Amino acid sequence: MDTISTISTLAALTGTAFFLWILYGAFLIVADSEKRWKKRYGNRLIMSRSERARLDKAYSEREQNKKG
Q: Is residue 29 within 8 Å of residue 23, measured between CB atoms?
């Protein structure tokens, strides 16, 4: 292998590693967001404003009870 091929291969590997690192970070953000959503709203994906307000209030009360 000549020098240019080696540099090109290393650049491609570096780019791939960076891309995978960005994807992993996005996966962690989405997973954490989904975990917080399920903790707060359960399995509901579609809800009315009043139901969301009721669930928010219940969640805040649970959190206050946990704190003491």
A: no
Chain segment 24-55, per-residue pLDDT in tens: 999 999 999 999 999 999 888 899 999 999 99
Q: What global pTM score does this model have?
A: 0.65
Alpha helices in the chain (DSSP H): 3-41, 49-67
CA 52, CA 31: separation in Å to the nearest integer?
Answer: 21
Q: What is the mean pLDDT of the chain?
A: 93
Q: Is 47 helix (H, G, I), strand (E, B) or coil?
A: coil
Task: Judge whether 54 and 41 are in contact, CB under 8 Å.
Answer: no
Q: Tokens 């590997």, residue?
A: 13
Q: What angle do CA 7, 13, 14 make, to 5 degrees?
A: 85
